[in-house]
Specification:
113 residues; 2 domains; 4 helices
Length: 113
Amino acid sequence: MKKHAKRRAELEALLAHLERRTAKVESDLLRLDGPISADFEEQAVAVENDEVLAFLHDEGNHQIESVRSALERLDRGEYGKCEDCSGDIRTARMNALPYAVTCISCAEKREKS
């Protein structure tokens, strides 16, 4: 259980980091720090930046949901089990991607289909 306590702490820290980062991106998208410049060239750059920020915001929200789901699986005793084959997900994969839901083999199968 000590391993799971450490993993929970890691996931909770990752979740907090992602929530802070995504909130900052959202603040930038909503221009809470100030309005867009009146200069046309600066407006064009701001619009380009908004596209990147929108992607980062969506990706951040996706990662937040993935981490929350991993915490739920941890609570249910299903953490580290592959959703597709029910086998164990290797520790190295869980260390690299702590919210992984499939083993490498099943992840590769999903990518091919």
